[in-house]
């Protein structure tokens, strides 16, 4: 298999696996990929400005405003005015939002663990484990 075929096959497999993980998550189905990405960035940061979130998710600030309004209504985020500049508002996950992310991560792990246990042989599990450092190298390539 040449590099072009390998890259196409790898992309297809990873996309299908990602879709499989997403389908298992009833709690995430109410959110678009951009909304999930926004929530993920907030989970990994204490708080961010809407403009920072827009830059991280590669969308316009106006679109981010709509996303934030939606997930705020659902109790996922909190808005905190800046102490130094009253024009700025920091966004963070609410306790509900943090628990939601933990549940989603748990559900994904459970689904994938079950899939691995049901479908892979011991040799295939070992091969997958050996492939992980290679996949990490691809992620780190920017």
Shape: elongated
Distance between the termini: 24 Å
Mean pLDDT across the residues is 91
Order of helices and strands: HHHHEEHH
CA radius of gyration is: 19 Å
Biggest sheet details: 2 strands, antiparallel
Number of domains: 1
Order of strands side by side in the largest beta sheet?
1-2
CATH class: Mainly Alpha
Kindly state the percentage of residues in helix.
55-70%
| CATH fold-level label | Arc Repressor Mutant, subunit A
Q: Give the low-pLDDT segments.
A: none
Gross CATH architecture: Orthogonal Bundle
Strand elements, count? 2
Q: Can you tell me the CATH superfamily?
A: Winged helix-like DNA-binding domain superfamily/Winged helix DNA-binding domain
Search tags:
142 residues; mainly alpha; two-stranded antiparallel sheet; elongated; WH-like_DNA-bd_sf
Polypeptide structure, described:
With 142 residues, this protein is mainly alpha-helical. It has one domain (27-140): Orthogonal Bundle (Arc Repressor Mutant, subunit A). It is built from six helices and two strands, in the order ααααββαα. It has a two-stranded antiparallel sheet. A hairpin with a 7-residue loop joins strand 1 and strand 2. Helix 2 packs across helix 3 and helix 3 packs across helix 4.
